[in-house]
Amino acid sequence: MDRLRAPRIYAGGRWWSGHQVAGLAEFWRRAIDDACGGARPTIAALLPASAEGVALFLALASRPATMVLLPPNPSAWPAPRPDFRSMPLVVPPVMRGVADAARCLGMEPVMLPAASGAGAPPDGTDVALLAPDVVLFTSGSSGDAKPVVRTLASKLAGAATRARALGLRAGEGCLIGVPLT
């Protein structure tokens, strides 16, 4: 799968069109590229459980870089790790309060601009998928956060399976919890 159609999503008591989600993804992708450049092999991010979280996931998935998804609550983050040193952490506007926690881990917070500057993309709702892997942190049985690497394709296949089980039609989505974890 090398392209994904941005879904129509019901979140926060309203519907978001695929055009709105794709437009915000493109807007934030440009902001991430401006802040991080194209040479970063790994970028971390916080995904809110919202349509904005889906747009941010799509923005990161459209970059040729491994993405590290951290839980929204800094108390659930792993202990400082050498591989976090100087890693950019993309922070959506609704989560600006975690920037200090990111700096304590040695990460470089990249604050995204407000979604109000985004418009609909000129080429529809398809988003190119270039990210090779997704790194998630899970406590498993130990209680300590540890990284688990999954391919982007396997994450999307799992999401598609859950969507079919919920009876969602192609191009629709519904946020039940934290997206894509």
How is this structure best summarized?
The protein has 181 residues and is of the alpha/beta class. The chain contains four helices and eleven strands; from the N terminus they run E-E-E-H-E-H-E-E-H-E-E-E-E-H-E.
Give the helix tally. 4
The main sheet orders its strands as 7-6-4-5-9-10
**Largest β-sheet summary:** 6 strands, mixed
Strand content: 25-35%
If you compute it from the alpha carbons, what radius of gyration comes out, rounded to the nearest whole angstrom?
Answer: 16 Å
Shape: globular
Low-confidence stretches: 176-181
Q: Which structural class should the secondary elements be placed in?
A: alpha/beta
- Number of DSSP strand runs: 11
Distance between the terminal alpha carbons, to the nearest Å?
19 Å
Descriptive notes:
This protein has a 6-stranded mixed beta sheet. Helix 1 (18-36) crosses helix 2. It contains 4 helices and 11 strands; from the N terminus they run E-E-E-H-E-H-E-E-H-E-E-E-E-H-E. The protein is of the alpha/beta class. The longest helix is centred in the first third of the chain and has 19 residues, at 18-36. It has helices at 18-36, 51-61, 99-104, 152-166; strands at residues 3-5, 8-11, 14-16, 42-46, 66-70, 88-91, 108-111, 126-128, 133-138, 146-151, 172-174.
What are the key terms here?
181 residues, alpha/beta, 6-stranded mixed beta sheet, 3-stranded mixed beta sheet, globular, disordered C terminus
Task: Lay out the secondary structure.
Elements lengths: L2 E3 L2 E4 L2 E3 L1 H19 L5 E5 L4 H11 L4 E5 L17 E4 L7 H6 L3 E4 L14 E3 L4 E6 L7 E6 H15 L5 E3 L7
Parallel strand pairs: 2-11, 4-5, 4-6, 5-9, 6-7
Antiparallel strand pairs: 1-8, 2-3, 9-10
Helix pairs in contact: 1-2
